[in-house]
Write a structure and sequence with these properties.
This protein is 66% helix and 2% strand. The chain has 2 domains: 9-175 and 314-338, Up-down Bundle (A middle domain of Talin 1), CATH 1.20.1420; 178-312, no CATH class. The protein is built from 11 helices and 2 strands; from the N terminus they run βαααααααααααβ. The longest helix has 28 residues, at 225-252. The protein is flat, with a radius of gyration of 22 Å. Helix 3 (36-62) packs antiparallel against helix 4 and helix 4 packs antiparallel against helix 5 (118-143). Residues 315-338 have low confidence and may be disordered. It is mostly helical and 338 residues long. The chain has helices spanning 12-21, 28-32, 36-62, 87-113, 118-143, 148-171, 180-183, 186-209, 225-252, 256-281, 286-308; strands at residues 2-5, 334-337.
Length: 338
């Protein structure tokens, strides 16, 4: 006998559950009965993997390896793998493609591990389906010879994947109770999130107008880099002001988790700003641009942490409280399916 969610007791989910229960291949049975720690670690691995693939994708562009594999889904017209004749650029591009399979393996394992938990299952499935979707967009970037707008979309979809991975990970983590005063600050954190998203989007446009195209023959947007960079800086200052406001507001209502999250965000923002200014005035050296891309992921995650500190996504599902949904004993309404 196995336990499944009440809402799905007569539908698709229990049928898939029964199929998974009968799979004799390791580690499917073990993952299906995974404990809370395993689910939490897999969710964190998914988050780290989505951040890591952004960083390695940046390395592809910054080394001029964007067309190291000149076609897709094959690496060449005759081979799915890079050949020795393609040199280091082909190896870098093909290596980045291989990481997609690692991320896919983590995502599939996570789906199996959370399958019996409705609150975790839906985002896990969406994220797993997003990986091949991202792969297709990556292929389109190659087939369009690194069109800067398609490349930008590729990065923004990665940001969305990071956001979804962060949500899933937070749902596996026990969090302290949030005071009512902190929840009243949620609109301020939404404004912060909008500003952070604007910073990321404008940053993508800045990159699309700059020199790091991934290939020396790739086209750029043709926009004025200085004008777009100034707009980017303006958005950063707006975000910085909102982050300071979040910190002061959280202190005023004694919301300790939000105070900590806001302080971390401020530290990340200042470090990211320092990297941004240095890279601009040193004419965009590849190493600093790569650090700035990694910093963009850190800023996005730190922003989401401030939002979650207000109790966002803590609304309970039918039959339980938000805190109880993270425990093995009380996180589901159960029925027995024979």
């Amino acid at each position: 006998m196995r336990d499944v969610d009440t809402a799905d007791a007569a539908g698709f989910v229990p049928r898939v559950t029964r199929i998974l229960e009968r799979v004799p291949v390791w580690p499917v049975p073990q993952l299906l009965d995974a404990d809370a720690t395993t689910r939490r670690r897999l969710a964190l691995a998914g988050l780290a993997g989505n951040i890591g693939i952004v960083i390695t994708g940046g390395a592809v562009r910054l080394t001029g390896s964007g067309l190291g594999c000149p076609t897709w889904p094959k690496c060449t017209e005759d081979s799915y793998t890079a050949t020795e004749a393609m040199g280091v650029n082909g190896a870098i591009e093909f290596g980045n493609r291989l990481l997609t399979f690692v991320l896919s393996a983590i995502a599939i394992a996570l789906v199996v591990a959370v399958w019996r938990h409705a609150r975790l299952r839906r985002p896990a499935v969406i994220l797993a389906l997003g990986i091949p979707g991202q792969g297709v967009v990556g292929g389109i970037t190659v087939l369009t010879d690194l069109n800067p707008y398609v490349v930008g979309l590729h990065f923004l979809l990665s940001a969305a994947m990071i956001g979804g991975s962060y949500l899933l990970w937070q749902r596996t983590v026990r969090r302290p109770a949030v005071t009512g005063a902190a929840t009243r600050l949620r609109p301020l954190t939404w404004a912060l999130t909008a500003a952070s998203a604007a910073v990321v989007v404008i940053g993508v446009v800045v990159t699309g107008s700059g020199p790091h195209a991934g290939d020396e023959k790739a086209h750029r947007t043709g926009l004025n880099p200085e004008m777009i960079s100034q707009l980017h800086v303006d958005a950063v200052f707006l975000m910085l002001g909102l982050a300071v406001a979040c910190w002061f507001a959280a202190r005023a209502v004694t919301a300790a988790p939000m105070v900590r999250a806001s302080a971390i965000l401020l530290g990340v923002l200042l470090a990211q700003g320092a990297i941004g200014f240095v890279q601009y005035f040193t004419h965009l050296p590849a190493l600093l641009v790569g650090a700035h891309m990694a910093g963009a992921c850190a800023v996005w995650v730190a922003t989401l942490a401030v939002v979650w500190a207000t109790g966002f996504d803590d609304a309970p599902e039918a039959g339980g409280s938000a805190s109880s949904l993270t425990s093995d004993e009380t996180n589901r309404t159960l029925v027995t399916v024979r």
